[in-house]
Hints:
This protein is mainly α. The protein is built from eleven helices and no strands. It has one domain (5-223): Heme Oxygenase, Chain A (Up-down Bundle), CATH 1.20.910.10. Helix 7 (114-129) runs antiparallel to helix 11 and helix 8 packs across helix 10. The longest helix has 31 residues, at 33-63.
Amino acid sequence: xxxxxxxxxxxxxxxxxxxxxxxVGALVNHPRxxxxxxxxxFLLHSMIxxxxxxMQAALTACRGQGSRSPVExxxxxxxxxxxxxxxxxxxxxxxxxxVLGYDTQAILSRMPSSTIAxxxxxxxxxxxxxxxxxxxGYIAILEGYPxxxxxxxxxxxxxxxxxxxxxxxxxxALLDREHRRDLDHVLDDMPLTSxxxxxxxxxxxxxxxxxxxxxxxxxxxxxxx
Length: 225
């Protein structure tokens, strides 16, 4: 029996997700994870604050060039419903950082790393200069593999940090499982071509590789202190 579109995408991602999980493991298993956790939140905020603008750009691109393919029409419909679900999630992270004593304006004034700029910038390039469908690979990585609630509660116990500083992670442990199912349903309904699978996979690989590098960098920077 042939694989569904979502199964084909997930099968490709199975080759790249272990590297991302290894980097996260190096972070959460670090003996000073309680010290590194705010940096992890800053990384999350740097990514999440770009998510809605990226989806809005992809939606505009799907609509903006006259007659579009059925795939892009379906992608646009998905984005129209998904964008409201993702709004203000970056503010959740800011509230978690406030619990840990970090000033919101100081966080907003801090420059995100060149690696994060590369992750997000690659999506803008593909949206405007190739296929907005590339963003599906980015979304598949960011929303497709959330930690389980029991893992997060273990991190809370390990760090002895306030549970309120983990609210974003706890919410996404539930939300992203629903979002993954929604995304898989959309993928299965799309008449994807080999080129479509190619750009989704390339985007996902780029996102996972650069995110893994950035997570490892948090650990490396700590070791240099």
